[in-house]
Amino acid sequence: MNSGLQPGTTAEITVKVTSDMFPAFDGQVVHPVMSTVSMIYYMEMAGRHVILPYLEDHEEGCGLAVDIKHVGPAVEGQEVTFRAVCVEVTEKRVVCEVTADTTRNRVGVGTFTQAIFNKHDMSRRFQAIQEEADTK
């Protein structure tokens, strides 16, 4: 990774809750609020924005671990701000504390860990797995 990424580096994104973010199973909406899946998606996106400026051309990052709690609702039309703050950087890992907040309440909190790897090596690995899957 390029130098400069350190604890305290922060990224934020804000999204408006839409009905396609509601939790739905078998075509039935469970609650008219932002789903946990949607919340985690945007927490990961904020974390990705933390690392993007520091990746070298041959590097890529991917989600390795999430430890998230969904602690409050966000209803349709509300804006949710997702914030990722880098708390740990190693050669192969970046850990961010992530939060999701409306102007009214906290929606989620936790950590998101990304693995940093050589994207060409990982592409070859994915291709080998795909070829194996295609033969079955």
From TrEMBL:
Ranges where the Fluoroacetyl-CoA-specific thioesterase-like domain occurs: 17-119
Signal peptide start-end: none
InterPro entries reported in the protein's UniProt record: FlK, FlK-like_dom, HotDog_dom_sf
Name by which UniProt lists this protein: Thioesterase
